[in-house]
Amino acid sequence: MSTWLxxxxxxxxxxxxxxxxKAGPVHALPYAxxxxxxxxxxxxxxxxxxxxxxxxxxxSRRVDLLEALxxxxxxxxxxxxxxRFDGLRIAYADPAxxxxxxxxxxxxxxxxxxxxxxxxxxxxAITLDLVDAEGIHRGGRIAPxxxxxxxxxxxxxxxxxxxxxxxxxxxxxxxxxxxxxxQSAALALIDxxxxxxxxxxxxxxxxxxxxxxxxxxxxxxxDALHVPALxxxxxxxxxxxx
Length: 242
Prior knowledge:
Layout: E1 3-8, E2 12-19, E3 22-23, E4 27-30, H1 36-40, E5 48-55, H2 59-70, E6 73-78, E7 84-85, E8 88-89, H3 100-112, E9 117-122, E10 125-131, E11 137-144, H4 146-156, H5 174-201, E12 206-210, H6 215-220, E13 225-226, H7 230-241
Parallel strand pairs: 1-5, 5-6, 9-12, 12-13
Antiparallel strand pairs: 1-2, 2-3, 2-4, 7-8, 9-10, 10-11
């Protein structure tokens, strides 16, 4: 049986074949002009039996993917956040209000690490979720990512570029100052959240990092575990349960 996993994010599509309960080699596809069918051409087999989809993208982008998949597979399953799943218990009173990407990332993290974890994604937003050693979600945080900070500054002050520059300790030009300020703001949030998590649980908490914009943080937090396909790992766990 051929089964594939699809993580439809805000800026790119990730997909992988489900192999022995785990995600196989990952295809990371930034969105471009054209349809999802064009984006997936040459990647998907002519026929697959099941497609498991996790989406936080716009409705039009999700529909585009589903239409493309109907030409390849017999069944499509949409992942949804659940209050309890595989030993994980979500803190939200209404689980539907917790993004499915955060839910799946926590499932994936529990496959990666035994004990308490702080799951951090840096993408369009920064999300942080704390899960204790018993699988109880203690809550989370959401903030703008460095890229979104840059875009917001550029929107209000067009003379400030929306991208470019490098993270340095003390910048000598505006591009580097913007990159350094926004990236260090993100790192400060993550550092403070990690310290708060250790205080909350009165012990060690492993920091897991993922997301398209996480590389600068990875370089400054060598103690953290970088798991690029964490959502797909969680989706593999969700898919394998059925």
